[in-house]
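It is worth pausing here to work through a concrete case rather than discussing structure prediction in the abstract. The textbook approach is simple: state the sequence, then state the predicted structure, then interpret. We follow exactly that order.
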Amino acid sequence: MEVCYCLAPGYGFVESSLLNAPGFTAGLLDKSSDTVLLLNAELTALLTLFREPASVTEAAVALAQQLNAPVADVRAIVEDSVDTYVQRGILARAASRQEADSYSFPTLKAPHKIDKYFVLNELSATPPVGVYLVRNQAGKQYVLKKLFLDPGAPRAQIRDQQNEFAYEFEILAHLQDCPLVSQLVTFDPVKGIGVINYFAGVSLRRFITGNSESLSQAHRMDLFSQLLDAMDGLHSRNVLHGDLHSSNVLVNEDKRIKLIDFDMAFFWRDRAKNKVKFGGITDFIPPERLTDDVFHQSAGPPDFRAEVYQIGVIGYFIFNGKLPFVGQTWRQQLEAIRHSAVVWEVGVPARIQQLIDRALHKNPAQRFASATAMRAALV
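Step two, the predicted structure:
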């Protein structure tokens, strides 16, 4: 029986009438970050097919009817798209409609106790992993990730999920001495839990947007310098973050940052292995990784120069309060990322402009080789 997929519990559709975004037909609410991913007509047509469990074949047939195209031509697009959205946690697997009805993803509610921690609230849930804010007996708060395995799933699928879950904590253990990175407290593969220190902050995106009038150039410079320190910590240890964007950087009330969300991170040595997941948010995908396929935008996992580009996008946002390349539609945004020049606001120091311009170069060979090299250039 063919595997079915459906929209993950952490996402929900937002109708176009509720969006102030001409050119987009719907939105997809990420409940964990309270952000909306804008969907054009093609993406809306595809993802709407998975409101209820559907197989690749069923989705391809339905989409082919809408497009008046051969099923064989559409199926390859749907297969690639499903792989991408499963990796990003937007779509979840269900072995069959019956299983989707009978097996529901567990949710832990306060004051549930797991190991030696008490659940305070759920932060996100993207099957098969739930993420919770917890506290210990002394009242100290942590973030706990729990792997929930479907007992009816095939053994190969269970093994892959266990290995994928463990890989993230292997990387965090390798980064244990990096102070600006999520700090691993414990990982228990038998119990399927990993615990990380809690960092009380908001996303860099929300922080910059909410404090645009009050942030001085010195504050912006300090945030940018911290970002480079954090990414230098990864690249100098041959680790790629894998999903670097402004919502995966937290800022606390003291304007200190923390790099989070390592479920797409990977060791450089493993770049060609199946364990490496890749995806990304369009705003932060460099031009050489973007494809012309609206359903399958990322050409492959990032390398060091690709993440230098992403540092450049975040750096530009820190100093200008907006993204460097935008478009009303996905096609327009693709064109801007590939061809538009960087435009700077008045008042940004020339040396910062030069540094970020190089990081955002369309040709990856002209960028810094890594965050480590970029950090050295800033110093």
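Step three, interpretation. The domain at 113-197 is CATH 3.30.200.20 (Phosphorylase Kinase; domain 1). The radius of gyration is 21 Å.
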